[in-house]
Amino acid sequence: MSFRLSKENRNYFRGISKDFKIKLDMYYLCLMMGIASNNKSENPEAGELIDYWADKYKDYSNYIIGLILFVEAKNIGIDISNKETTSQHLNNFLDPDQQSRLSLDKGFKEANRYANGGMEIMMRKIPEPQLLGEFLVKYQEVLKEEIKNNQNFNF
């Protein structure tokens, strides 16, 4: 298993794809939107990218994985202050033998579901981008709105 972004989802970015150095950049935007909105959809069958964190994401991978784990724990009602249940939860998503540290079964699957869900939000709320600057302004507006409306982030 790997990070996946379907061809249809990649096509959404075609007007600005030249502005991304790697395809994982597009995936990351989708993933963050999915987490912010707590929106997941089906794991794409195709669209394999890579099965590791690209160099520019490597230093931040623990934070990204932490966000996924936090939102998943909140969604299934795990009290993250309870060490035992939290450890059991973590073990489903993590695999220290994988370069990405995400388990092939649950970790990648849920990350891809959030990325695909984030793409749904973007397609619904942000017109297909032609200029990176305009897209990023609208993206951050929608991202803030989704975080504000997500009960998982009300502390």
Produce the secondary structure layout.
Elements: H1 7-12, H2 23-37, H3 55-58, H4 61-75, H5 83-93, H6 107-125, H7 132-149
Helix pairs in contact: 2-6, 2-7
Structure description:
Helix 2 (23-37) crosses helix 6 (107-125) and helix 2 runs parallel beside helix 7. The mean pLDDT is 88. The radius of gyration is 15 Å and the shape is globular. Helices cover 57% and strands 0% of the residues. The chain has one domain. It has helices at 7-12, 23-37, 55-58, 61-75, 83-93, 107-125, 132-149. By secondary structure, the chain is an all-alpha fold. The protein is built from seven helices and no strands.
Radius of gyration: 15 Å
Largest sheet features? none
So how many helices?
Answer: 7
- Total number of beta strands: 0
Q: Would you tell me the structural class of the helices and strands?
A: mainly alpha
Could you give the order of the helices and strands? HHHHHHH
Mean pLDDT: 88
Distance between the termini: 34 Å
Q: Roughly what fraction of the amino acids lie in strands?
A: under 5%
Uncertain parts: none
Give the overall form.
Answer: globular
Q: Give the count of structural domains.
A: 1
Q: Which percent range fits the helix content? A: 55-70%
Descriptive terms for the model:
mainly alpha; 7 helices; 155 residues; single chain; globular
Q: Could you provide a short overview of the structure?
A:
The chain has 155 residues and is mostly helical. The chain contains seven helices and no strands.
